[in-house]
Design goal:
528 residues, Alpha-Beta Plaits
């Protein structure tokens, strides 16, 4: 047992506490979000004490319970209670129970306990009418640290960031590990301006100095998003969702690393619109109301169809037809685009079966370009019918291709091994080098329509498009001009040697599968 005479003062008692304790009486009292209404506020905590001092080798567990009392300003001023020793078995049980509420790597609250603490803080704010704030701090470059140094060093960075954030909190504030690279921070008695000041302080703490790790110094950076409660969030779940929303916006910014949630009728309208489209997309998938329209891609020399691009359409219950541009961005945000791409593949194969001799092209999303199940489905659909593959061109957008050249090259190689052709869509918008196109071994480039539309009116675009066509010829790549809508543009493109053209001048997308090229040509009224 420690010398009791040394335990009579707070300073003396603190000298016997194990520095590895995850909490102590001071933190339990000062970080409490409860209010003393005259009878005191109960507390109960467990921690280790070192009977022989911090240089000793023995320790024992204490149960510290009692009540703290506030002064006239509501601030804790004294605590009264009882301290008792655990026996060994109870000590183990309590330690396990205690650790169930804390993250073992950082020593901070885990997600469940953080949720409970935020709920307590929100209730306290509603009682006292003093706002609180919930911040989310995310380590931006943790994936790069993982790749460069390994998970052990990344764990060291996480722990160091947690310590720095904790050091910058005020008495009464709380923090927990929200997710792998995210920390949730609860700021008591905090309005919008206080939250912004706290965010700057926390951001400076991380960016101000490198973190020493076993692999050497590593720099870290964070983004922060926060919400003031209950003004902008009346439930714990709502607070977390809105802090996530603010954090997501902060990650997209280059200069400002913190964003405070603010109610916006425009955002709310956009959110409701997304929800509506998500429901519509799921319903259309289930009811098989996703259809294809077929737009001709014509030979530049003759104006006759060489291919038909399969363009996705959503047919509403009232038979209104919605183009892909209105719902694909939402589908990508909500993670539904993979399901859509699988359905487009099925519909395209049906078109190949229904129209022997007709060539089709269709576009796939960036997610599908790295989806092995989609490629497996394509392989299964094609099977031994190599004619299907030879009549099929898969389009990937230029921005998708340049985001990961290595993965894109593998994807293109797999498609070509099946016998399919590959085109780069929207070419020119992402500034892909022709060296990369050669590396990917694609067959065709489709020049972005924004450079082709009203081409005859823009000398700059004329120079750019002509240069692209000439370079493509040098690399033995076929070229397609999109958005062709004027005969004067047609003449320019033909003179420069474009291979194919596509646009309303040659026909809009039709919902019927073109079974014969000759019949389709007559139907679209495209003369040579």
């Amino acid at each position: 047992m420690p010398d009791l005479s040394l335990l009579n003062t707070g300073r003396g008692f603190a000298s016997f506490l194990d520095t590895d304790n995850l909490t102590n009486r001071y933190e339990a009292v000062m970080n409490s979000h409860l209010v003393d209404e005259g009878d005191g506020v109960p507390y109960e905590i467990q921690y280790r004490i070192l009977p022989q001092g911090r240089n000793g080798h023995t320790s024992c567990w204490l149960d510290d319970s009692g009540r703290w009392f506030a002064d006239s300003n509501g601030q804790p001023v004294k605590a009264q209670g009882i301290i008792r020793l655990f026996d060994e078995r109870y000590q183990r049980d309590q330690e396990l129970a205690y650790l169930s509420s804390y993250d073992p790597l950082t020593g901070q609250m885990n997600r469940l306990r953080l949720n409970e603490t935020l709920d307590e803080a929100l209730k306290s704010s509603e009682q006292t009418r003093m706002p609180c704030a919930f911040l989310l701090a995310a380590i931006n470059n943790l994936a790069m640290v993982n790749d460069a140094y390994g998970f052990d060093v990344a764990d060291q960075v996480i722990a160091a960031v947690a310590n720095r954030l904790k050091e910058k909190l005020r008495g009464g504030d709380s923090m927990g590990r929200y997710a792998g690279n995210k920390f949730g921070i609860i700021l008591a008695n905090c309005n919008e301006e206080d939250m912004r000041i706290a965010a700057v302080r926390l951001d400076d703490a991380i960016r101000g100095a490198v973190i020493e790790t076993a692999a050497g110094p590593v720099s870290a950076a964070i983004s922060l998003g926060g919400v003031v409660m209950p003004r902008h969030a009346r439930t714990t779940q709502e607070g977390m969702v809105r802090a996530e929303e603010a954090l997501s916006e902060a990650k997209q910014r280059h200069m400002d690393h913190f964003v405070a949630y603010e109610h916006s009728s425009k955002k709310e309208s956009h959110r409701k619109r997304n929800i509506m489209f998500a429901d519509e997309i799921i319903s259309a998938l289930n009811d098989r109301r996703l259809r294809l329209g077929y737009q001709p891609i014509v030979y530049a020399a003759t104006g006759l169809p060489a291919h038909y691009e399969c363009l996705l359409r959503l047919v509403k219950p009232d038979h209104e037809i919605v183009s892909a541009g209105h719902f694909i961005p939402v589908a990508e945000q909500l993670g539904l685009v993979r399901l859509i791409d699988h359905r487009v593949l099925e519909l395209t194969i049906e078109a190949l079966e229904a129209a022997p001799g007709v060539n089709f092209t269709f576009n796939v999303s960036g997610l599908t370009a790295t989806d092995p199940s989609w490629l497996a489905n394509l392989t299964a659909f094609i099977g031994s019918n190599r004619d299907f593959a030879h009549r099929l061109t898969v389009e990937i957008t230029e921005t998708v291709a340049i985001n990961d050249i290595e993965e894109s090259t593998k994807f293109v190689s797999s498609l070509r091994d099946l016998g399919c052709r590959v085109a780069i869509d929207d070419f020119g918008a992402g500034y892909t080098s022709f060296r990369n196109l050669k590396l990917m071994n694609v067959d065709m480039v489709k020049i972005d329509g924004s450079f082709v539309e009203n081409l005859h009116q823009s000398p700059d675009n004329q120079f750019f498009v002509r240069t692209l066509i000439d370079l493509a010829k040098n690399f033995n790549l076929e070229t397609v001009a999109e958005w062709v809508e004027d005969e004067r543009d047609v003449e320019l493109l033909r003179d420069w040697g474009i291979d194919y053209m596509q646009g309303f001048l040659f026909g809009a997308a039709q919902m019927e599968i073109p079974t014969k090229i000759e019949d389709a040509a007559k139907k679209q009224n495209i003369a040579g």
